[in-house]
Protein 1
Amino acid sequence: MSHPRCPGQDMRYWKPEDIFIVTCQFCGGEIEFWKDEPVRPCPSCREEIRNPKIDNGCAKWCQHGDECQGRPRDEGTPEKS
Ligand SMILES: [Zn+2]
């Protein structure tokens, strides 16, 4: 994996606060999120939980944002349901 990362999302600079708990909106269980994970499966109900702190905000201004997102800059946020 030689996926480029923007310095702001490099795990080497992370702090314990960068891992946080999100409550599952489906079953109320707890999901441990890392701050750059957009989605995680709930360990209890297997639903995919979105990271509420990720808004792709970083990618909007970071010059490496397109590489971080792994897609062309112009494509925007895909809406999947
Ligand atoms: Zn759940």
Note: The helical segments are 57-61, 65-69.
Protein 2
Amino acid sequence: MTAGNTTSSATNSAIVTDYRAKTPGSGALFARAHKVLPSGITHDGRYLDPYSIHVGKAKGPRKWDVDGNEYVDYFGGHGAMLLGHSHPAVVEAVKKQMEIGTHYGSSHELEVRWAELVCELIPSAEKVRFTASGTEASHMAIRLARAYTGKDKIVRFVGHFHGWHDNVAAGATSHYDGTTTTGVPQGVTDLSILMPADDVSKTVKLLGERDDIACVMFEPSGASWGQVPLPPGFIQALRDATTKHGVVMIMDEVITGFRWSMGGAQKVLGITPDLTILAKIVAGGLPGGAVAGKRDILDYIDHAASAAKKREKVSHPGTYNANPLSAAAAVAALTLLRDEDLAEKANKTAATLRAALRQVLVEESVPWGIYGDSSTFQIYPNPSGEPLDPATFDAQKMGFAKLKGARTPALSGKIRMALMTHGVDVMGSPGGFVSSTHGADEIERTVHALRMTVRDLKAERELKVA
Ligand SMILES: Cc1ncc(COP(=O)(O)O)c(C=O)c1O
């Protein structure tokens, strides 16, 4: 099968015209939004040309925009909604907490219960410190690693995303050559050593050669929750080398935590990092994050432990750390996840979904790939139009440059808009997150939407099939 994709101007696109016709209320809200919000949005990942939908309601695996259009939702709150939207147990817990206080400015029982659950579920968690987001958890983990080792440099991998703070900004979604990104001083970027994620021997060698490295951090799924899978053995080799050279291993489980399994990716892999960062699911769909890990590293935030060692403690304030509403949602969600193994339920649904979507590509002779781990799916839309058989597509053989390095926002945007017009909302990569509430009906609707989408793309010559 040979094929080629081209992108054409959105102005004469039937896909864009249909999308606009179906979403006039979102268009009107965007007109207001862009006067007061840069690009009319509040997260770069929600950017869509000409505008993104404005949602008014979500429940379980579905959401509805302000025009009343219903979508099977795979955006999943950027991966936070493993239990689906507004799970009754989470709603109940948050409502109850709302009545008795949203911020005590004091310690409270729910934060203790929350930490106990994290320590029970996540293998590496001996102690935990809550933050208000994954970005904050990432920032704190790096600070702890630097304090613990007395070293400054961070090893990161090309395309791996760890939030938006300065230490991890360059090389995650752009600047894959390690140059700095707008607003981030070159000196800060120079503190990171950006390594390729396709050959672990280079990193192993680096760790043996240098003595200024505080930590190695990575997404255990591979870049962007598995968009670029890691080669087999990669993480174990990192574990061995970091242990040998006294470098802190930080596993970024902001996406994979509680999703890859109820004990995260580390439980599936059987590899225990020194520090783990968590967010999204950890707070039950409300804002929150956490750094968990070895007691002697977390002790750098501990007053008594630091005083006993006669060292200055690492500072960590944060107004919304472990706020009662997030703690209430988190305790309800993590308890359910544990008792009903909902991660496994979502994993099974996603495996069925991936197989069904792959079958659509085969039947429609579309040279794309469907892949992904756990309760996720990724679509490789083959932007350069190389010959590709969807039945045998293997993301492991593709490499970073194709899977993430050559993303084409125009084509991905059209795929997203066409899918939305047919009742499905996905992440921009494109790809998505399956929840424990998705089931056979959602799969059937998604299969139909993908079939209609590839036909729409063929109709406007965005997808040529030989
Ligand atoms: C792997 C990973 N790490 C860190 C973060 C940052 O988390 P937050 O958006 O809560 O700051 C994200 C967010 O998408 C993520 O996917």
Note: Residues 342-363 form the longest helix (22 residues).
